[in-house]
Amino acid sequence: MNKNDPVIRVKNLVVAFGSFHAVDGVSFDVQRGEIFGFLGANGAGKTTTIRTICGILNPSSGTVEVDGKDVSSSTAVLKPRIGYMSQKFTLYPDLTVRENLHFAGSLYAMSPQAIAQRSHKLMEFIGLSEDLPDPVSHLSGGVKQMVALASSLLHDPELVFLDEPTAGTSPKTRASFWALIRRLAQLGKTIFVTTHYMDEAEYCGRIALMERGKIVAMGTPGELKKEFFPVKPLELSFTKPVEQPLRAALEKAGIASAVFGSRLRVRAPDRAAFEQAAAPFRDGFFARETEPTLEDVFLQAVSGRKAV
Q1: Which CATH class is domain 8-225?
Q2: Would you say 18 and 41 are in contact if contact means Cβ atoms under 8 Å apart?
Q3: Residues 32, 37, 42, CA angle at the centre, nearest 5°?
Q4: Residues of CATH 3.40.50.300 domain(s) within the chain?
Q5: Helix, strand, or coil here: 215?
Q6: Is 232 left (phi over 0), alpha (psi -120 to 50) or beta?
Q7: Where are the alpha helices (H) located in the chain, listed in sequence order?
Q8: CA 222 from chain center: how many Å?
Q9: How big is the CA angle at 155 (ends 13 and 33), to the nearest 5 degrees?
Q10: Topology of the domain comprising 230-291
Q11: Is residue 172 predicted with pLDDT exceeding 90?
Q12: Which residues does residue 81 pair with via DSSP β-bridges, in sequence order?
């Protein structure tokens, strides 16, 4: 297979459980060495997609290829090349860090010497000691996630799947985790990461936005912002208590808004319509243009209309 070809090819993928389509006709490619983000709310179909690509679930229809090989018929061949950190903790709580890593290595028939060398290298990479004496159950959530990452990388896979890797962790841990993800990509790993944190998507080379089993938008963060927001959103700060009646007037005019702290964020591509709806309250707020966020993009994409 040509090294410039996509490492993952998904075409018209459907994963159904009875009459319910958890994944409903999605198609996308992932390039070698990129950080590809799959974004959406819980239940959007992200985990089902990732488990299907890893060969854990079978597609109801459509095709999934990794390095040109059909996953359904090549799972045993592809398994050593894939690292998977699942959404739930994949560590044994009664074992220590060292014991968990040795067990993970044994699943890939690694020798004790190879496990020891690789464990030492990985724990240095993530900034932890493999000699932590306590069982994993005694560690913080953030440390557990770091150890789970090391466990998924123990056999040195080329393709790494991270399913909600920062869920439930502190902002500091999330930042540290994403620094590790970027370093893995710099080392040549292909990273496929799912998350429902929209701010994390800024770290991805490309992202796909998923809603109810379907991809509703896909591209780089910059491309999606330009596509859905050729006109920038407005941010309103208030000098008088007019926020609630203003929001009601905007809603009546079909103009979406959302509260961000003490300010109001307004998606108003039609500035004339905004000015008309806001006119009775104009002496009670200041408005300025602001850069769209990926949360703005996601909400606009899910609504089924671009801000044009």
Answers
A1: alpha beta
A2: no
A3: 145
A4: 8-225
A5: strand
A6: beta
A7: 46-53, 75-78, 97-106, 112-126, 141-153, 171-186, 221-228, 243-252, 271-278, 294-302
A8: 16
A9: 55
A10: Alpha-Beta Plaits (3.30.70)
A11: no
A12: none
- Nearest CA-CA partner of 186 in 67, 33, 30: 33
pLDDT score recorded for residue 2? 62
- On whether the CB atoms of residues 52 and 15 are closer than 8 A, the answer is yes
Q: What is the pTM of this model?
A: 0.85
Amino acid at 308: V
Q: Dihedrals φ, ψ of 235, to 5°?
A: -115, 125
Surface-to-core class of residue 16, CB atoms within 10 Å of its CB (0-12 exposed, 13-18 middle, 19+ buried): middle
* Rg of the chain, C-alpha, whole Å: 23
pLDDT of residue 125: 87
Q: How far apart are the first and last CA of the chain?
A: 41
Res 1: pLDDT: 55
- Residues counted in the chain: 308
- Residue intervals of the chain classified under CATH 3.30.70 are 230-291
Give the pLDDT confidence of 53-86 residue by residue, as tens digits.
Answer: 999 999 999 999 999 899 988 888 888 899 999 8
pLDDT of residue 218: 95
CA 270 to chain centre: 31
Other Cβ atoms closer than 10 A to 300: 25
DSSP readout, 96-151?
A: -HHHHHHHHHHTTT--HHHHHHHHHHHHHHHT--TT--S-GGGS-HHHHHHHHHHH
Helix (H, G, I), strand (E, B) or coil at 265: strand
In angstroms, the CA 255 to CA 2 distance is: 48
